[in-house]
Input
Amino acid sequence: MVSVLLIAEHDGRDLNPSTARCVSCAASFAGNAVDIAVFAEHGQDVAEQAAALEGVRRILLIDRPENAPPLAAVLAPQVAALAADYSHVLGPSTTFGKDLMPRVAALLGVGQLSDIMAAETPYRFERPIYAGNAIVDVEADPQTKLVATVRTASYPQAVTGGSAQIEARSLNIDLPQHTRFVELRTDADTSRPDLQAAARVVSGGRGVGSADNFALIYALADALGAAVGASRAAVDAGYVANDLQVGQTGKIIAPELYVAVGISGAIQHLTGIKDAGTIVAINKDEEAPIFEVADIGLVADLFTAVAELTDALKR
Amino acid sequence: MKLPDIMKAKKKPLDTVALADLGVEAESQFKITNTGPPPERQKGVMVADIAGLVSELKKKGLVDG
Ligand SMILES: Cc1cc2nc3c(=O)[nH]c(=O)nc-3n(C[C@H](O)[C@H](O)[C@H](O)COP(=O)(O)OP(=O)(O)OC[C@H]3O[C@@H](n4cnc5c(N)ncnc54)[C@H](O)[C@@H]3O)c2cc1C
Output
């Protein structure tokens, strides 16, 4: 019997949209045999958000103080213990899932299938290789438990309206003591939407020219209610922090709207935005490769165009 | 790396161990059955100015109006 245990990603308050995307993937091959595990401290709110996702059978809430920070080393043995009742264990291919799922696979003594982008059957999948430049069909052994990450950009969020039951679970296992959460230090701006989850993203590239000039990008992002991203060149030049990088070695995202400003459109950057709904490009070079993939292109100097667009949107 | 070092390295003992002796199973649980190109994105429209850009965004329902 195919049944999926899906590990919820959340920040203790809100369920991350990556979970709703994973539900779409799981439901595509497992019908309604999809349970979500919420590891948290005081996780009732998060569990209720998960329970509202259409297509979910049950929420398992594992509520204990050690589960407050999402530490892969602490969560993995708990996931491995819960996995006994399931044929599939899924997590998102976000930083959270990429951290956690390999440990789960190792504890279960199986391999991990990464970045599911389509499921033909419960044991036949498509996944990207070479940074998305080729797609392979992979067949997994049905006799072996399948631990996998879901390429969240390939799936829409499951809709809400469901009402799965929430079951509190206590797992009688010793948690590792060798790793503990100390402190989170971040200069990330938490007042803005999260890049990996945002429905709209405005990214700046080398063309923006300086960290100060990025104010233009932030202003446009605010007018659109968008998160801010960047090309690697902009990150390497120190215009913005490297967690804003979009692309092969940054974040792979699928917002409904992606605005690329002063970005040439290198293949490694395009890898990160292939599944965006609408791509808008603003670049002064009409030959820039970004225009080959843009749904809407504007050849213009960004310093005038971005300010003008921001004004037009505010009106 | 210099050539003499490479020559010296060639003299190092090289043990061959049979996989069976290691007591591990080399079978993969995964099989690749096909490799193909990814779907391509199509080229879209070029607009002449900000007004054109905003009107395209409106057409797609991405901004109000
Ligand atoms: C292994 C590997 C991994 C990589 N991973 C990533 C990745 O994850 N993400 C990523 O982004 N890159 C990645 N890269 C780097 C990538 O190859 C490019 O170098 C990078 O994306 C270029 O960034 P850019 O478009 O901002 O800069 P450029 O290529 O320099 O482009 C700048 C653009 O700005 C335009 N411009 C300049 N001034 C203006 C102006 N005033 N108005 C309008 N337009 C202007 C120019 O016409 C140009 O098109 C990777 C490379 C390698 C080798």
